[in-house]
Amino acid sequence: MARALYLPFGKSCPEEPLATRLDRIWQEDRSLANLLRIAICTDAHRGPRLRAVADAPELALAAARLAGRPLDGRVVRVRAGIRAFPEHLHDWHSDVARDDGTRCGGVRITAWIPLKDTGPGEGGLELVPGRRNAPLPHREDRAFSIAEDSLAGMPRIRPDCPAGSVLFLDRFTPHRSLPVEGSARFALVIWMKGAPTA
């Protein structure tokens, strides 16, 4: 992506590891750093290594077993936690905010696969464990989100997830992104949809 810009490639800090590169670029040009962040989150899942992870038969089998039904169809993306962009962390939400069977309502289970070790302070997730029969109410503001007071009294966990491990989230599990204190965190996220019923 950086080679497709008019900006000289050398100005995009090519010598810097990806985990710190966007923070470095942000110090000089916030707009460029954000453009590259969006490009990574929109396109990186198409690379051969991440595609192989997303296409692993073991992943599909485990997801179908946990979902308790056949799965068919998915959306794959990369999500990032970057210290320079705290406003792009996801607030409390569940992957299905409206259980209407359309669009995101068809999601049955999500696989969250960090590409580096994550946990509290390292861009992990915080979640409310357990399964629910319906989503908690979501506000429809900048993005669908669950108000903090809707979660009052509910247990919360912040799991440590080694790189390459899979954290499966039920469609109604409230979760949010935790801030990154060090280098950027990237995760492969696969939203899996239920197969049509006869």
Strand content: 15-25%
Percentage of residues in helical conformation: 10-25%
Low-pLDDT parts are none
> What is the name of the CATH topology?
Jelly Rolls
Largest sheet: 4 strands, antiparallel
CATH architecture: Sandwich
**Strand order, sheet with most strands:** 1-8-2-6
Indicate how many domains the architecture comprises: 1
Can you count the helices?
Answer: 4
Number of strands: 8
CATH superfamily: q2cbj1_9rhob like domain
- Oligomer designation: single chain
Provide mean pLDDT, rounded.
91
Write down the overall geometry: globular
Summarize the structure.
With 198 residues, the protein is an alpha+beta fold.
Could you explain how this protein is built, in words?
The protein is α+β, with helices and mostly antiparallel strands and about 200 residues long. The protein has one domain: q2cbj1_9rhob like domain (Jelly Rolls), CATH 2.60.120.620. It contains four helices and eight strands, in the order ααααββββββββ. The strands form three sheets. It has a four-stranded antiparallel sheet with strand order 1-8-2-6. It has a two-stranded antiparallel ribbon with strand order 3-7. Strands 4-5 form a two-stranded antiparallel sheet. A hairpin with a 3-residue loop joins β4 and β5. α1 runs antiparallel to α2. The longest helix is centred in the first third of the chain and has 14 residues. It is globular. The protein starts with 17 loop residues before the first helix and ends with a strand. The model has no long low-confidence stretch (mean pLDDT about 90).
